[in-house]
Fold this sequence. Notes:
The structure holds 3 protein chains of 3 kinds.
Chain A: H1 2-33, H2 35-39, E1 52-55, E2 58-61, H3 78-87, H4 102-105, H5 110-120, E3 134-135, H6 144-152, H7 166-176, H8 182-185, E4 202-204, E5 207-209, H9 225-234, H10 245-252, H11 259-270, H12 288-300, H13 302-305, H14 331-339, E6 341-342, E7 354-355, H15 364-375, H16 387-398
Antiparallel strand pairs in A: 1-2, 2-3, 4-5, 6-7
Chain B: E1 3-4, E2 8-13, H1 17-28, E3 33-36, H2 44-47, H3 56-61, E4 74-77, E5 85-86, H4 120-128, H5 145-159, E6 167-168, E7 171-172, H6 196-207, E8 213-214, E9 224-225, E10 231-232, H7 254-257, H8 259-262, E11 268-271, E12 274-281, E13 288-295, E14 300-310, H9 314-324, E15 341-344, E16 351-355, E17 371-374, E18 393-398, H10 419-428, E19 432-439, E20 448-456, E21 462-467, H11 472-491, E22 496-500, E23 517-519, E24 543-545, H12 560-578
Parallel strand pairs in B: 1-14, 2-3, 2-14, 3-11, 4-21, 14-24
Antiparallel strand pairs in B: 4-5, 6-7, 8-17, 9-10, 12-13, 13-14, 15-23, 16-19, 16-22, 17-18, 18-19, 20-21
Helix pairs in contact in B: 1-12, 5-12
Chain C: E1 12-13, E2 32-33, E3 47-48, H1 60-73, H2 88-97, H3 127-146, H4 155-167, H5 180-196, H6 208-213
Parallel strand pairs in C: 1-3
Helix pairs in contact in C: 1-4, 2-5, 3-5, 4-5
Amino acid sequence: MKGVLAALLLSTLAGAAQAQDQMSAGRYQAILGDCQGCHTAPGGKPFAGGLVLETPFGNMTVPNITQDRATGIGGWSETDFRRAVREGVAQDGTRLYPAMPYPAYTRMSDADLASLWAYLKTVTPVHHAVEADHLRFPFNIRALMAGWDWLYFKPERFAPTEGKTAEWNRGAYLVNGPGHCGACHTAKTLFGADGPVALTGASLQGWFAPEITDAKPRGVGGWSADDIVAYLKSGWNSHAVASGPMADVVERSTAQMTDGDLKAVAIYLKDQPAAQKPSSAAVAANDPAMADGKVLFQNNCVACHGANGKGEALMFPPLAGNPVLLQSSPENLIRVVLAGARAVSTPAAPTGPSMPSFAWKLNDAQLADLLTYVRNSWSNQATPVSADMVAKIRTSLKSGS
Amino acid sequence: MAKILPRKDVVIMGLGWTGAILAQELTDAGLDVVAIERGPWRDTATDFNIGYMPDELRFAVRKDLFLSPAQEAMTMRNSISQTAMPMRDYGSFLPGNGVGGAGVHWNGFVWRFHPSDFALKTQLTKRYGARRVSELQLEDWGVSYDELEHCFDQFEYLTGTSGKAGNLNGQMIEGGNVLEGSRKRDYPTPPLKMPYASTLFIEAAKNMGLHPFPAPAANLSRPYVNPLGVSMGQCTYCGYCERFGCANYSKGTPQTTILPVLMKKKNFEVRTESEVLKINLHPDGKTARSVTYVDRAGQEYEQPGAIILLCGYGLMNVRMMLLSGIGHPYDPASGEGAVGRNYCYQTQGAGARLIFEGKHFNPFIGTGALSATIDDFNGDAFDHSKLDFVGGAGISCGSSNGRPIGYHPTPRGTPRWGSKWKKAVAETYQNSLGIGAQGSSYPVRGNYLDLDPTYKDRFGRPLLRVTFDFPDNDIRMANYMSDQLEKIGRSMNPKELTVSRASKGWNSVPYQTTHNTGGATMGANPKTSAINRYSQSWDVSNLFVLGASAFQNNAGKNPTGTVGALAYWTAEAIRDRYLKKPGALVPA
Amino acid sequence: MTRAQQPSRRRFLASASALPILAFAGHAQALSISGRLPWEAFAGEPPRPVNPAGWYYFTPQEVGTIEAIVDRLIPADQLSVGGKGAGCAVFIDRQLAGSFGKSSRLYMKGPFAKGLPTQGYQGALTPAGRYREGLRALDDYVHGAHGKNFVQLGPHEQDEILEGLESGKIELKLASGLNTRSFFELVLGNTMEGFFADPLYGGNKGMAGWKLVGFPGARYDYRDHVDKHNVPYPHGPVSIYGET
């Protein structure tokens, strides 16, 4: 009797422990997938939806995925959940838009999805009806997604690449699966499908997600694997700091990943080929824009970024050799100098120092020259910046878009 | 009708240095803390834009970051024989305002008071006899430098103070302050680079057998990460330090050292633009029940708390105690009562201006605390047996700024306007340096704080009344310092030397210093102190009063280092003693 | 996927450089903060450069007088332009039209009574009011003594009068609570402010004041020069809005 009781107790405890394990594992899956990043509105309850996503096709409102039956997914089964996450089809058969990155999540394993589902079932149900999307015609016709899926989407589990290490394959799984890095970092076609070359940078909602292949200097070619790990974990390394949308990703997702997983991501990224983009010649130092930019730089920037462009560890990112400055599109730079920016705050680096806004002080031509200068000084080489581009971004920022 | 809010573990009036330190320590101990701050939110990111911070008119002259008298003013007089009038604008001292308080726009001097500064009554009576100090109302603080040593260390490492130790565990280190109290370890960052003017002073002082050293500065000589994990930048000697917010995270302030960690905590909340009107006591008057405050819409709230901390500027703390009926108001006639007692200031009248020829001092290159100092004539560091005063001054030559509205020196006798003035200003700006003596300020019976009988604030509450003049002892001390400045100045061979002397009749108009101390003093005797050695009110056991209001006397040093140390000391006492057994920590 | 940007901050008049006391600008959202460190795009309250044209406070007659005064306090000579050319009168005009002129910062509750010199200004008149009263009284005096307005006097005579105001030898007939010497100090002080403040406030035109003394202006980094003892600083001044 005692033995049976003990066994029962043990198995119950083990079951409880297993359930506990599944929940922590599931929470980790939610961190990997950064579900909260979209499914929680600013100031809103976790996973209760309501965030408005601005896409090239109009605005979408992210749904409530708490267990509320009326407004969330309380009535869903695990199968429904898998179908949504891996195939882009909701419980009632409607198609999801790939703003929900099911083309990436499709690669997630059964075990990981089971953990994630177990965790989501424990999230406090929140009654929060999310308003309808405001997509432009014809993108508001969900049924058309069937065609899109047929053309551009292939549901498939992740398959390890032979000849690569377990670590590399783990990185490949994370980057292409739950991490869905390509959702931002891979350029999209006109119809929103992934372009032919992965992770070579893309424009999204006024920000440019940089190239993260092993390209040098635009990607992580000049970074060691440890540099990549440090960046994802703390938001900082000796080359750059995470701010803007990537600050959110680091804070909510990568800063909470295990060191092993971060290393795997780094190993994988270091093995991604650079795009064959033409390198731009440096703008000549005696170009009038450069001369003008140099004075502006000395009068506005050196007290933080240093006359040598080296910045200060954990305070001000370097400008020399910083990939953020060297992307084909300078839109991030323009945004940051106009509106200011905030470095991410992580447990490893909690300060979150900020770049002040210079919109009130520098006009479009000045800002263009200043950015041309920093993009072409020290050993930096990149396309010049035009006053027109600055003007466009200034207008779009002021109008709140 | 005041809305009554849910009770908090700790309610803090004011989120400046002491409020931020106490909030950080007590939230770490698991308590639920709310700070009520009457000024606005302030932070580097939102308020200290590097593009427009270097604006002398706005910040140094129009005092944009400071408390405006329209929000809270005070009245002043030199003695009870005068009628106090309101300081309709602040002049002689400039209280701060907003989150961070004066900790935002201070110079950044991080001094440790000398061991003797904490026990002047005992020390000076023993050394010179009771008659020498009979004019003064000296009192020991009830806490010693040795007990506070680790707390000074904590504040220095919090702020990344740049300096050089002169007395490391009893071992004297040349180049540091060999006259300081013994310290266990060096400063967290090395000293700032001395400017040209300071090097001339250092040479002159050494030649006279004196011991110059770089003043310890919370203007950081290099990037730094403090024990909370918060990182700071390197000071760029911009010359827009005191009166300004730092735009590149290189001045130690609550913003740059504590808030990034504190603000993230779920168990901490700050309510800004909310002014505390009164502390409410329980009917038996032995404990405080709550704080009444008004928000900027005019709505009144009552915020109950288990522990209440007064962390405003020292003068405001004293006023709040008087307005709330806490403790016994000091009466200068009888000498009774402790709240308002032993108000002190800083004795600044002794100074020297030197004018050279053909030099380039570049006065605009400076930091708030960039200077070389000698302590040889400070406090009780030197033998006063043959002198007619006690106390002393830190003598310094530094470079905090060359902002031209405030700084455009000319030789003696130059007209103050016209072509001659212009020529003199052009020739002198690069050729002048100053040496200052920051003198101790000792308590006398007639210098005190109370509530004004006539003038009221915008809520109808009486203003604080400051009755103060420099004691004769302090004037004699300052005159002695002027003599030393004459000697040092002469030895530097200037073209012209002008030594100023202190005089009676404290004038509230020209700026002197914002080092107002005392009024809610710390001590072992409830008759002559308002708080015990743990900053706990003798009368209201769940009320603690932080700030320079605790000082029984001021020293020849800026107060903030000691204020910060006492804040850590108090945090320990609350965490390790009070929470385990609420009630009086020291028998009355 | 960005969060919506916060609306941009409003700017404020450069001549109202002190913020109104109780209506603190902007941080409307920041009254209870917990669990976050506030940040927003376009944060801050940059100063608005004054409009250099026209007069916002002084009447045409007052303009004439104040321009003449500032041009004597800081005369044009081989060293620099005079106070008028430097824009000191424009500066004072804009200051008086803003919060400085209105004493917004000051404690202006009664009772008003005469105080001691150590107790500072105890009058009820704002700086704007003191200028109006002082300039009127000055012209009254000059009319009485010379039969002309101040502007019509020669520079030498103007200097004599200013010296008289400064020393107290001349006592203007001022409204109660004001005295001549403190009026002179007010004008002299504001003139010097105008000469040395950032040009965005209307004075220090062409950074003439800064160039006179060799002040580099709104610079923020001297790390490369702090060790260069007794060496002239090689760069000229720069203003907040980037004038070089």
